[in-house]
Amino acid sequence: MVAVSAYAQFLLDHPAYAATGALDEWRASEYGRLDAQGQVYLDYTGGGLHADAQVREHARLLGEHVFGNPHSANPSSTETTRLVERARAAVLAWFGGAGDYTAIFTLNASGALKLVGESFPFEAGGRLLLTADNHNSVNGVREFARAKGAQVDYAPLTAPDLRIDAPALEALLAKADPGKANLFAFPAQSNFSGVKHPLALIATARERGWQVLLDAAAFAPTNRLDLREAAPDFATVSFYKMFGYPTGVGCLLVRKSALPRLRRPWFAGGTVNFVTVQGRMHVRSPGEAGFEDGTLDYLGIPAVEIGLRHLGRVGMETIGERVRCLTEWLLAQLLALRHGNGRPLVRVYGPATGEQRGGTVAMNFYDPKGLLLDYRRIEELAGQARISLRTGCFCNPGAGETAEGLTEDDMRAGIAEGAGITLPRFLQVMQGRGGKSAGAIRVSFGLASNFADAERFLAFAAQLRDQATLSIGTSTFDIESCRVVRDGS
Ligand SMILES: Cc1ncc(COP(=O)(O)O)c(C=O)c1O
Mean pLDDT, to the nearest integer, of 326-342? Predict the structure, then answer.
């Protein structure tokens, strides 16, 4: 009864949800394994889930064709090339890039980001500008920039919203020498806080003499990225995040006019039209071929077209709407949770409303005295409740550092511990520096999410109210001892 009335209230408060009912049918027909196993999956930012139909269609395709290595002209090779190129065209059409963009298949978004990092003509006098909110696979581009003598800067975030500090960014963008190679890289959506950063920054940066790398890995699974509107020089995605299957295929979308400026640091099989050993020279293949090292995942890539068709059947707008409703509801419910003494149980990092944010929610839990609960123990407890969530810093240290108010001095205190520094030890050091923390709990919604998932997580969170002890299997879980002040846990 309680669940029904909570759902009825949810529908009243979020009337747009009713129009996303097609996803409930999908949940039953294509993602039935979730409910069959009583699983609550809340890590769509980590990885999407695949529909049964995608796998069936892919298996049928593999059963109907003889696919050989595409680097040949024989019939099996030609058939492979035909399907890989069809998938490429489908990707370009999906992102509105046909005509102006090239799609380069990679292993994942990180592979795509590395291609930009290693090929971008960083130079002394040129710049790399990152936002503090970035995945480590974007942060890592700074190593290529540094090695070539470019200046590396970070645009800070504002707390507690974790949005880009607009005046600070403006000042940094103004520093570019338009005669040099300058790259500005930011995520369309944060994988830490769910913040949607303004895509209008792309045009602003380009006007100031920057090329722009848009990391769309966390954005593309629940939003439509239209390259005609956003118009970055580079955009990166991982397909398993969008539709779960296949893993091992990502994509770098490059504006055609930006391609000739990229310089690959090496060549490989498949990337050259001509190589001589005697002459010690090579001629790079034009277009995407010059960037696709070795043999592509030619059996997996046709499944990308199947996945896009699958998303297209229900539409990104429907997925985005459902995720927005669930996120807004969960945020409001979590923030309303109070201990008996009136103190809040949950601290949410980033925006507290659905405004300009996606379905990724980072948080920590606190006891009635306001002391942090150990998120690693909470992940264990969630696991026992068959809830899949994520804990840690989600490969996005900059957003986490801003969220917790960790300073350069704090980080140096951690680094001073030497090579033996571990997360538990770092947490101890931070507790000694004003009770700061590092790391959080993250839940994220996606195309197979429903109200019951959100409700199960809320019920799990509510159990942590006013608790002195919580049972984990046969042992006892004491919230007091779960404070991050403990030694060596
Ligand atoms: C925003 C963002 N960028 C990049 C990546 C890296 O993606 P992958 O691990 O698929 O290379 C992720 C993965 O979580 C991400 O969320």
Answer: 97
Let me know: does 187 contact 135? Beta carbons within 8 Å: yes
Cβ atoms of residues 104 and 249 within 8 Å: no
Q: Is 450 in the pocket of ligand 1 (CB under 6 A)?
A: no
Whether residue 391 has its Cβ less than 6 Å from ligand 1: no
pTM: 0.94
Helix (H) or strand (E) holding 83: helix 75-94
Tell me: the pLDDT tens digits for 14-65?
999 999 999 999 999 999 999 999 999 999 999 999 999 999 999 999 999 9
What are the tokens at 400? 């986490």
DSSP 100-151: TEEEEEESSHHHHHHHHHHHS---TT-EEEEESS--HHHHTHHHHHHHTT-E
Pick the closest to residue 333 from 344, 341, 323 (CA basis): 344
Omega of the bond prior to 246 within 30 degrees of 0, cis? yes
Q: What is the pLDDT of residues 458-469, one digit of tens each?
A: 999 999 999 755
443 CB burial (10 A radius; 0-12, 13-18, 19+): buried
Contact 447, 311 (CB under 8 A): yes
Give yes or no: 325 in active site. Answer: no
Helix (H) or strand (E) holding 311: helix 301-314
> How far apart are the CA of 4 and the centre of ligand 1, in A?
37
Assess contact for 327 and 357: CB atoms under 8 A: yes
Q: Using the mean position of ligand 1's atoms as its centre, give its distance from the Cα of residue 308 in Å.
A: 19
Q: Is 109 in the pocket of ligand 1 (CB under 6 A)?
A: yes
87/103 Cα distance (integer angstroms)? 10
SS3 state of residue 236:
strand
Instruction: Give the separation between CA 489 and CA 486, rounded to whole angstroms.
Output: 7
Ligand 1 mean position, distance from CA 73 (Å): 35
CB 187 within 8 A of CB 357: no
Q: CA-CA distance, 349 to 394, in Å (whole number)?
A: 13
Buried/exposed code over 19-55 (b: 16+ C-beta within 10 A; e: otherwise) = ebeebeebbeebbeebeeeeebbbbbbbbbbbbeebb
